[in-house]
Amino acid sequence: MNSMEFDTSYQAYLLDGEYVVWKGRPEKGNLLTPSDYISIPFGIIFFAFSLFWEFSVLQMGAPFFFPIFGLIFVCVGFYLMIGRFFHQASMKKKTYYVITNKKLIIQQGNTINMYEPHNLPPMEIYLHQNGYGTIRFTEYYISHRGRRRSHSFSLENIPDVIKAQNALNSMER
């Protein structure tokens, strides 16, 4: 879906008296998140070990099942190390944000999430070195087993983060 198709598709979700205050999309470029500082080294180690295991199995002449089994782990390791950045870039091309006077709409691919202002968790604004910013909403809750869990969503890498933040603050509560 290109931006022209999105301009017409989100309008079906607007209520009477609802109008767009701000709309945008994430800019290109991969931003490292705090979790990447753990997952990148883990991905490198996982990928290296799975390659070692795969080559060892091939050299020993193990039965057909073992190389196929190892290939699955090689692919997972490659994804953890590098592939997820391509996946994130692909998803950014399919992501659109709309803030109306009554709700926040986030479309990622074929998934559309709508949040009303009274259901939005507190926002955190992260300013990046390139002048862009990310607005992250994180909600904490206790699971049925008593463990603390969180759910978060964000408006990532947007050039006019202040305008988006002002639009979010101006939503009718």
Short description:
By secondary structure, the protein is of the alpha+beta class. Helix content is 40%, strand content 27%. The model has no long low-confidence stretch (mean pLDDT 87).
Labels describing this entry:
173 residues; 3-stranded antiparallel β-sheet; alpha+beta; single chain; 4-stranded antiparallel β-sheet; 40% helix; 7 strands
Structure description:
The structure is a single chain. With 173 residues, this protein is α+β, with helices and mostly antiparallel strands. It is built from four helices and seven strands, in the order H-E-H-H-E-E-E-E-E-E-H. A four-stranded antiparallel β-sheet has the order 1-2-3-4. Helix 2 runs antiparallel to helix 3. The longest helix is centred in the middle third of the chain and has 29 residues, at 65-93. The model has no long low-confidence stretch (mean pLDDT 87).
Strand-pairing-aware structural class: alpha+beta
The sequence of SSEs as H and E is: HEHHEEEEEEH
What spatial form do the alpha-carbon principal axes imply? Answer: elongated
- Terminal residue distance: 31 Å
Q: Indicate the proportion of strand residues.
A: 25-35%
Which quaternary structure do these chains form?
single chain
Gyration radius, rounded: 21 Å
- Mean pLDDT score, rounded? 87
Strand order of the largest sheet: 1-2-3-4
Helix content: 40-55%
Q: Secondary structure elements and their pairing?
A:
Layout: H1 3-9, E1 20-24, H2 36-60, H3 65-93, E2 95-100, E3 104-108, E4 111-115, E5 123-127, E6 133-142, E7 148-158, H4 161-169
Antiparallel strand pairs: 1-2, 2-3, 3-4, 5-6, 6-7
Helix pairs in contact: 2-3
